[in-house]
Inverse folding.
């Protein structure tokens, strides 16, 4: 960060401060309003389609959980304003990790909202704010154009795959809760949901951890992203073949394959990971 000019550091500090304030003061209200609208719509939907009842406890848990994570991310961003101005090296990876939270969580909360609630999708504003900060930091970082392109593509695909994997995990739980054979699993198309959901949630976790590590050009970050993408691909693709009622697992496979291409291309990997004396990127 000390390589960045004072004007760039000021821009990053302002960006971090504004997103941090939004996550603390604005996003909590948006999440609560969104959750209540989704639950209200689901309660009405359940009257004619009881299988949708599983969404009520899941969304009641995960909307507030992501809000809490976002709140802490906001506090983190606000606390980093001065260190960013000073040019502390650790601020870039930490800020990027914090900025990924609203980008990912806003998109997750957006999907149930547009499925059940009419009108402007409120959670999308959280994702937009997060993406402005996330992309802003990547573009402001003092690197050449090719490096910026590699970073934008790779980090964006990491975020997209993380969101989709988390959403697939929620979808798997929703279906399992309402299965007719419960507590048993009536064949392969049901028990496979217990595998794909958990694997995708683990992949989400690995992808989010990989963001700050890759921001530091660490080889460990590259490996975590690779393992997550490969795991998602190897579990989503067969699940799609078993459960053909939806294409969601196909979309997950395509996102995972896209990220694998970026990670494995020598031209990309050479810019994502910088080797050091001890062999660690």
């Amino acid at each position: 960060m000390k390589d960045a000019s004072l004007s760039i550091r000021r821009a990053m500090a302002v960006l971090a401060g504004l997103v941090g304030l939004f996550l603390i003061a604005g996003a909590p209200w948006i999440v609560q309003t969104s959750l209540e609208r989704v639950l209200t719509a689901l309660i009405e939907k359940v009257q004619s389609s009881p299988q949708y009842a599983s969404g009520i406890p899941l969304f009641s848990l995960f909307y507030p959980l992501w809000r809490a994570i976002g709140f802490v991310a906001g506090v983190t961003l606000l606390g980093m304003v001065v260190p960013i101005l000073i040019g502390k090296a650790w601020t870039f990876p930490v800020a990027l990790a914090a900025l990924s939270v609203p980008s990912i969580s806003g998109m997750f909360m957006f999907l149930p909202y547009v499925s059940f609630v009419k009108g402007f999708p409120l959670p999308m504003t959280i994702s937009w704010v997060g993406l402005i900060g996330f992309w802003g930091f990547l573009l402001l970082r003092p690197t050449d154009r090719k490096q910026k392109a590699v970073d934008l593509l790779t980090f964006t695909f990491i975020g997209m795959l993380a969101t989709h994997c988390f959403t697939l995990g929620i979808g798997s739980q929703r279906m399992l809760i309402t299965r007719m054979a419960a507590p048993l699993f009536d064949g392969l198309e049901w028990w496979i949901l217990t595998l794909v959901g958990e694997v995708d949630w683990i992949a989400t976790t690995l992808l989010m951890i990989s963001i700050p590590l890759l921001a530091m050009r660490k080889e460990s970050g590259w490996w975590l992203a690779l393992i997550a993408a490969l795991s998602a691909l190897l579990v989503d693709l067969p699940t799609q073949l078993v459960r053909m009622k939806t294409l969601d697992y196909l979309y997950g496979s395509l996102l995972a394959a896209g990220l694998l291409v970026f990670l494995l291309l020598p031209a990309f990997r050479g810019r994502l990971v910088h080797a050091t004396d001890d062999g660690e990127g």
About this structure: Residues 275-281 have pLDDT under 50 and may be disordered. The CA atoms of residues 114 and 120 lie 8 Å apart.
